[in-house]
Amino acid sequence: MSKYFYSPSKNAFYPVELKKDYVNAGAWPEDLIEVTNAIYHEYGDGLAPINKVRVAGDDGLPAWGKIPVDYVAKAENERRSRLEEANNVTTEWFTDLQLGVITDEDKASLILWRAYIKELKHMDLTMVEDETMFEAIKWPQTPD
After folding, report:
1. Which is deepest, 32, 55, 80, 144, by most CB within 10 Å?
2. Pairing mode, if any, of strands 12-15 and 52-56?
3. What is the pLDDT of residues 35-72, one digit of tens each?
4. Which residue ranges in the chain fall short of pLDDT 50?
5. Which residues contact 39 (CB under 8 A, 6 or more apart)?
6. pTM value?
7. Measured on CA atoms in the order 18, 24, 29, 32, is the torsion positive or negative?
């Protein structure tokens, strides 16, 4: 049975029988902790539980943690979805405008939707760091 070490800084397992190779490659971490085979089999050679990822626990041993959420990407996806909806609403109006057959009512709606699109595009979403900040985003109102 193999003997394993775990590196919290690398969040990786290292089999002792490969130590020489890792040392020769300059890749044998300084913070290794010897772990039991049970720990290795739970965290090292199987699948993670659903919606979990292996992390270094507070005690330096592997643990299951939540998969981190990229809230900036989540906000950007929401913006992209809203822009797509707006573009779907306005596509026919643009065609009518180019053909010179747009009604005054549709032209007024197009102007409102263009303002909405510009507001969406100019929002700074780079500071959205967590769920609370994501939920606090003040999205512009869609035109009626």
Report:
1. 32
2. unpaired
3. 999 999 999 988 999 999 999 999 999 999 999 899 99
4. none
5. 4, 6, 61, 62
6. 0.65
7. positive
